[in-house]
């Protein structure tokens, strides 16, 4: 797992599998600021491998940030594994995601077991989501003396949210704007909703210093804007982006077309 700092209050961990990203954000006010506010930090999404999840607590301990909450950009199982690293932390997600997870009890745990069996992985505990904190998107979430902005992000699935960290100018967008993966229409997703999400994210991308996709490299705003244009072109024409035309992306494209 690779860990990089994007800002004094933002770290990104990238998994060795699927280039899955996990973003750790600290509230803009801490005891070091002399304001007396406690340090708060949220872990957004999660890496995949057992040793990577185990290392997350060490990353937070190294920088002196407590995990005061978990956030998931959407309800796909690979974005919910923060509960394995921090089983006592509350898990927040968009109201639409909470509805999906409540309506599909046990699905994420079953999909994780299937992944682990396929790759011969052992985990010390099964995935248990526990109670969920349903968050409005669009909406805001307090962290320290600052606020995270939550933006609705459907299309990849029928639910989800992107997280804008305004004081750091970082956009955590879930499974959108990937450098390695074309727009993927999972069950419940749709081309029109995906396109609407990209248009909704466009002004944030233009303002961002960094954009963190769910899978792939962290980008500056200019590179993310180019990916956004490529993704819109793909959704409009079906033409694969030049840098994303490998066998796996062609397989995803074939599945997408069944949902168009």
UniProtKB/TrEMBL annotation:
Pfam families: Lactamase_B. This is Unannotated protein. Residues 19-215 form the Metallo-beta-lactamase domain. It comes from freshwater metagenome.
